[in-house]
Each structure stands twice: as C-alpha cells, then as structure tokens.
Design goal:
alpha/beta, globular, seven-stranded mixed β-sheet, about 375 residues
Length: about 375
C-alpha cells in the first residue's frame, strides 16, 4: 500500500521501533510520549539473538552491545546458595540497561524522519483513525499504532480485550553499583547471572554494564513482607541465607524512590487491530518476564507490522497478514514464560527437579529458547549472512 500518515501512542520499545521502521519505508510518522523525556525504567534487559537482529536491521547493534555486558554463564541456586544447575548462557547472552537501548531507538527513529513529541498524552483513539491529544484537540492518521502499557485505557476503548490474567506473583526491579571484587572476578571466571528460588521467592541478578548490577526480587501477591520496598534484608535472608551479604547491599544501594513492586499479568486480545488501529507491545500481549522476551516481541511485532504494510495492497490485508505471521510465536512465549514462572510455587524438591529438567529434557529447553532463535520478519537477509 502507499505510505501515508502514522500516529503512534507510546515511546517504549515497540513504539520506537514502529516509528523507525515506518519512517524508513516512507511513512510520515509522529510519535506521542506522555512523559517529558524518552526514557525507560532503570533496570536491565536481556538482549537475545532475535532482538539483536532487529538492532542490526536498524543499524544500532554495535552501540547497543557497547553499553552493556555479555553474560558467560547462568547459575541456578537454592536458598542456601548451593548451585543446582550451571550452564553457558544461550538464552540471553547480553544484559543491557533499558535506558541505553531506548535512547538509541529514539535517536534512530528521529534520524529516519519520525517526529517525536514529548509531554503529548494520547487521551483517545477511534477505529476511524481519529486521535485525541489532551488539551491540543484532535488529529488523525491513515494508521494508528497503539503501543502503550498492559493496563492501557486506550485499548479498553477499542473493545479488543479477551483475557487479562493477573498472575499470583510479581517483582521489584532495581540496579545497584558493582563492587571492585565482582569486576575482578569477571576476569577470572567470567560474568555470571545468578537466579535463586526459595520459599515462593526469587532473586535474580547480573551485570548490565561495567558499573551496575540489575536485580530482580520476585514474590507472591500475598507476601506482604516480600513486596515491601525498600526491602528488609532480614526478611529476604530467611529465604536466602546464602545471599545475605548481597541482599544487604541491595537494601542499602538501590534507588528506592524509583522502585516499585509490580504484579505480573498476561494480556490477550481478540485480535491485534481494529479499523485503522494496530495494537502492539504490552497493550496487546503483556507477559511475565521470566523468559525475558516482552520487549523482544514488542520490537519484532513492530517491525513485522511495517513489513506487512510494505507488502500488502491495503490496511486490512496488512493487519491480517501481520497478525497471522506474528501472533503464534508471541503466544508460544506467553505460554512458556508462565510455565517457567510456575517454578516459584513448587516445593523445594520439585523446584530442583524443574530447574534441572531444562538440561535433562532438551525439548523443554527448546521451548524456552524458541523466541530467542526466531528470525524476525524483515531480518532474513541478516540471518542468512551470519
């Protein structure tokens, strides 16, 4: 179809990739971000092979990697600090600060010709392409991309929601400074991601650059002590005595003014589009973060949308082709990230068995890694050159 005008609501991973990819294909693009800066929450993200192909397609892969850390191995621990399973990192070789990536995506979108408007909240969207912009009146476009959060009120107005499943668990995510000893140990035994499970709680941490560790602390919705921020090291050390010194550091060094415990959820829509509006990112397919693919699917589906619009004769055909191609792998990841996350509910012995099953039953490991090894739509030429 002939490129027209696109209005995008949301300046996260999906919205920014959509802005860059559409602008590169001749669309007149305006992205609206309600906040005063294009930024992200200050914690790490796993950059897996599928995501790296997208960054390569946008020409920013080298800069993304330069701002992060490569993880050499992943150790699964019990509460006492004993290693239950260790393996070389395949699922997520890079951990990068989210803010670093978002800033690069914003720059790339602007270079491609997209206009980025800050302090520009979208307050209403209609299937006919009409967009309400706070106090600034209305605008419209040939294409509207809704790329905001899992609790999107804009999505609700479209009547597309099929399921919004609130999980029994959630997490708080922070960063803390790395110590000189940790940095020195990298040179000896390689960088490591630690994941520990005990008492229906989860601790995950790893470097995201030379200076910072990303930390996730997961707990159940009825675990009031585990949900409290700042964390109480004594409370968490009762579950993870082997990590006490580290938990004391987290309590002392994290920026708790920016941290909040958030409940995980899974979102599924009847379909990903209505009229002139396409929905992507958490608004369309939120998922728990256990397989570290939420941002990956937002970016893959944004790029896939731009490709479909380039290939198909009209908007409706493009939307149908896009959803038919992208939705199955997204829902595969939603399903398997919930399966992996259920480890938190298992008794101690079954936890150990579940963690070990990833190595002992290769088929299970392949399901967890499925999205990571998908070649995103529009990236086949890059994968063929590897």
């Amino acid at each position: 179809m002939r490129p027209g005008r696109a209005e995008i609501a949301g300046g996260g991973f999906g919205g920014l990739v959509a802005a860059a990819a559409l602008a590169e294909r001749g669309w007149s693009v305006r992205l609206h971000e309600r906040r005063g800066a294009i930024d992200a929450e200050g914690y790490g993200i796993a950059v897996q092979p599928n995501m790296m192909l997208i960054f390569r397609a946008l020409g920013i892969a080298g800069e993304v990697i330069a701002g992060g850390a490569r993880i050499d191995r992943r150790d699964s621990l019990d509460g006492a600090g004993n290693v239950v399973l260790t393996r070389k990192t395949e699922r997520s070789p890079y951990r990068i600060d989210r803010r670093h990536i978002v800033r690069l995506l914003a720059r790339r979108a602007a270079e491609a010709g997209a206009e980025i408007r800050l302090n520009s909240p979208v307050t209403g969207i209609s299937p006919d392409g009409t967009v309400a912009l706070g106090d600034d009146g209305r605008t419209g476009g040939d294409l509207i991309v809704l790329a905001d959060g899992a609790g999107s009120s804009l999505r609700a107005s479209l009547g597309l929601l099929r399921h919004q499943i609130w999980q029994r668990d959630g997490a708080v995510r922070v960063t803390i400074p790395r110590t000189e000893e940790e940095i020195a140990e990298d040179a000896v035994s390689g960088t490591v991601m630690i994941e520990a499970w005990a008492d229906n709680r989860r601790v995950l941490y790893c470097p995201v650059n030379d200076a910072e560790n990303y930390v996730l602390l997961g707990s159940l919705t009825d675990d009031e002590a585990g949900k409290a921020t700042p964390i109480d090291p004594d409370v968490w050390s009762r579950s993870f005595p082997g990590l006490r010194d580290f938990l004391v550091r987290v309590a002392a060094d994290a920026d708790w003014d920016e941290a909040r415990w958030a409940q995980f959820q899974t979102v599924r829509l009847e379909r990903w589009w209505k009229g002139r509006v396409a929905v992507l990112g958490d608004a369309a397919h939120a998922m728990p973060p256990y397989l570290a693919q939420g941002a990956g699917h937002a970016m893959m589906n944004a790029l896939g949308l731009a490709v479909a619009l380039d290939e198909e004769p009209d908007l409706s055909s493009a939307f149908r082709a896009w959803e038919r191609r992208e939705r199955p792998v997204t829902e595969h990841t939603q399903r398997w990230t919930r399966i992996y996350g259920n480890t938190i509910f298992l008794p101690r012995l079954l936890k150990r068995m579940s963690i070990a099953a990833e190595r002992r039953i290769p088929w299970i490991g392949r399901q967890y890694l499925h999205a990571a090894h998908v070649v995103p739509t529009g990236c086949a030429h890059l994968a063929a050159g590897d």
